[in-house]
Design a protein that fits this description.
Elements lengths: L1 E6 L4 H13 L3 E3 L3 H7 L3 H8 L3 H7 L2 H10 L3 E5 L12 H12 L3 E4 L10 H7 L2 E2 L9
Parallel strand pairs: 1-2, 1-3, 3-4, 4-5
Length: 142
C-alpha cells in the first residue's frame, strides 16, 4: 500500500524511522523529501527558520502544504504520526488536521498511529475522519 506519512516536523526523525519500518513491512511509504534532511540536521535553512519564528515563510517557499496534498492524493492512505507535544498527549496540530481532511475528502484511508488526543477542541472532527487507530502497532495496517 502506498502510504503518505504525516505529522509534526518536530518529529522528523521518528517519521523517517517509520518510513523505513513501513518499507520493511512491504508498503510504499511517502514523505516530503526534505524530511530526511530535517531529520538528520542537514536541512539547516528549514530547521533554522523554525527556530527563528519564520516557519510560515519556509512553508511558502518550499510549497509544503501543496506538496503534502499532492503526496496524499497520489497515495492510498495516510499514516498520522501523533506524538506527545506541547504538553498534549498524541498531539495533532493545524497542518496535520488539514492533511487528515485532505485524505478524508479524497477517500484515502486514514490511519492514526496513537489514540485520538482528547484535550483538543477538534477531537470530534478527527474522530469523524479517522478509519483505524493503530495504538502504535504498524502491523495493524492492511
Amino acid at each position: 500500500m502506498k502510504i503518505t506519512i504525516c505529522g509534526s516536523v518536530k518529529f522528523a526523525d521518528k517519521i523517517v524511522d517509520i518510513h523505513k519500518r513501513l518499507a520493511d513491512l512491504g508498503h510504499k511509504p511517502q514523505i516530503h523529501q526534505d524530511m530526511f534532511g530535517i531529520a538528520d540536521g542537514t536541512a539547516r535553512e528549514l530547521t533554522d527558520a523554525k527556530n527563528n519564528g519564520e516557519h510560515h515563510q519556509i512553508k511558502i517557499k518550499y510549497n509544503f502544504i501543496k506538496a503534502w496534498h499532492d503526496l496524499i492524493i497520489n497515495g492510498d492512505a495516510v499514516l498520522i504520526c501523533n506524538f506527545d507535544k506541547n504538553g498534549i498527549k498524541n498531539y495533532i496540530g493545524g497542518n496535520t488536521l488539514m492533511e487528515i481532511g485532505f485524505a478524508h475528502v479524497n477517500n484515502k484511508k486514514v490511519f492514526l498511529l496513537n489514540p485520538i488526543p482528547e484535550e483538543i477542541s477538534y477531537a470530534d472532527e478527527i474522530k469523524a475522519m479517522v478509519d483505524v487507530v493503530l495504538d502504535g502497532d504498524l502491523n495493524k495496517i492492511n
